[in-house]
Specification:
CATH architecture of the largest domain: Beta Barrel
Radius of gyration: 32 Å
Oligomer: single chain
Length: 377
């Protein structure tokens, strides 16, 4: 019964007693008038509060009709993110299984989206009949995630250093093209405060006031930025010496990365790889020869497209190398890469920026699981 009709029902109950002792024609008129009043009040109540249905049972508590999943909306929104028909179909299955109704908000919020895709990732691991099938399904799942991530990064921009988050990783580049990894301590106040860079032996480096440097960083959406600034002074903090840098409202975007990148501190081994070409008839075949000697390094950041490795035995730009490291399940992953550039970090060693050129599907899935944290409980 609608709430607005309770009083009318009571009046009807009282009128029924009166009708037994009154003129029948008058009684009919009264009933018609009261019926019309009930209909009007009911219509007003529906217009104001919406239509409610009984949930059944003896309690009589009402509940709103559940919102329905819109397949058409998912197709439109998914296409705007660059997803193809097959990717949208898989996403629809995941959303339906998890009762997702708000398609737009879920795709726009990376944390919410990862919650559902991570469940799908775990389900693949449990239900796949073969390892090959599992890797194939994981690969397709990550193709969805990376496509959406790329769309997110295209929409995110940072124009001022005052918007930078604390503890964000950054890189200082000097006029001599020396690079040093640092972290932003604070962007609040009149100056941008960052960790003082350190030499290869861990000694804090001090730059004179007025020194010109370039700071580059990547946002959470993996969009890269850089800006030029000057050292305003040296500051002692609980984290050690820090540089005070001038704020800038001229932050320039770097060419957009195709894949999301994650900061890491993974130990790895790498070996020099030589690529030889041999003529076989009219064809030229390429063979890779991996050097037996291995060098130790630390992967500073990684994505599905490449990584940065810090090592005392850093290789020169243009050389090929085989990289090996362990994932969260202690499985060894290997990938073939090419050194795009190497930045020196003090007297010895440097940071190699590596582009992956040949990567097995199992390794690619392992890297994506690491980047999006699907391998964590």
């Amino acid at each position: 019964m609608f709430p607005g009709s309770i009083k009318i029902a009571f009046l009807l109950q009282q009128q029924s007693l009166w009708l037994k002792e009154s003129d029948p024609r008058a009684a009919i008129g009264v009933l018609i008038a009261l019926g019309i009043l009930v209909v009007v009040l009911s219509g007003m109540n529906i217009a104001k509060n919406g239509l409610h249905f009984s949930t059944g049972g003896g309690g009589g508590g009402g509940a709103k009709a559940p919102r329905r999943f819109s397949k058409g909306l998912l197709r439109r929104v998914g296409a705007s993110y660059g997803l193809n028909g097959d990717q949208i179909a898989v996403l629809e299955d995941i959303f339906r299984k998890n009762g997702v109704m708000d398609v737009e908000s879920t795709l726009a919020n990376s944390s919410n989206l990862d919650r559902y895709l991570k469940k799908a990732y775990r389900e693949i691991e449990k239900t796949a009949e073969t390892e090959e099938a599992a890797e194939e399904n994981k690969y397709f799942l990550f193709s969805i995630r990376n496509t959406i991530e790329s769309a997110h990064s295209n929409n995110a921009t940072i124009s001022s250093t005052r918007k930078l988050a604390d503890n964000m990783a950054a890189t200082i580049t000097t006029p001599k093209n020396e690079t040093y990894p640092v972290k932003i301590i604070s962007a609040k106040g009149d100056n941008l405060v960052v960790e003082a860079p350190r030499s290869a032996v861990g000694t804090p480096l001090r730059f004179p006031r007025g020194s010109k440097i370039t700071l580059s960083f990547y946002s959470r959406s993996s969009q890269g930025y850089r800006f030029e600034t000057r050292v305003q002074g040296i500051l002692d903090t609980p984290r050690g010496p820090a540089l005070q840098l001038a704020h800038s409202d001229k932050v320039a975007s770097l060419p957009n990365r195709r894949y999301k990148r994650k900061e890491t501190h993974l130990s790895c081994f790498f070996s020099l790889v030589r690529i030889e070409e041999r003529s076989v008839g009219r064809k030229i075949e390429k063979h890779t020869i991996v050097d037996a000697r291995r060098s130790l390094g630390t992967i500073m950041d990684i994505s599905a497209g490449g990584c940065s490795i810090k090592s005392a035995a850093a290789l020169s730009a243009g050389l090929y190398l085989k990289i090996e490291f362990d994932d969260a399940h202690d499985r060894t992953l290997a990938v073939l890469g090419r050194v795009v550039r190497t930045n020196k970090t003090g007297a010895m060693g440097g940071i190699m920026h590596v582009q992956f050129v040949k990567i097995p599907r199992r390794t690619l899935n392992g890297i994506n699981a690491l980047v999006f944290e699907y391998d964590q409980d």
